[in-house]
Design brief:
By secondary structure, the protein is mainly β. It is 0% helix and 46% strand. A hairpin with a 4-residue loop joins strand 3 and strand 4.
Length: 78
């Protein structure tokens, strides 16, 4: 039986926030809404960020700005 081709968003999953310009930071998923299409994550500095699944490219993008950071799901907590 085949599973998902990429990590499914779950509370506690590890993620990476990729900032515009090349920087990145580790994050943890703190909330999952709209059947996994809207996520809230906490970055390394404790700041909360919200991301939505883009219909155009199926990637998580900042809910605040189209030019903001992107989110990469890394998988389950260790």
């Amino acid at each position: 039986m085949l599973g998902p081709s990429r990590p499914v968003p779950r509370v506690g999953a590890h993620a990476r926030i990729k900032h515009f310009g090349g920087g990145s930071e580790q994050a943890t998923v703190t909330a999952v809404h709209d059947e996994g299409r809207r996520l809230q994550v906490r970055g390394e500095d404790g700041e909360l960020h919200e991301f939505v699944l883009s219909q155009a490219n199926a990637r998580f993008v900042s809910a605040a700005s189209a030019y903001g950071p992107r989110l990469e799901l890394l998988g389950e907590p260790i």
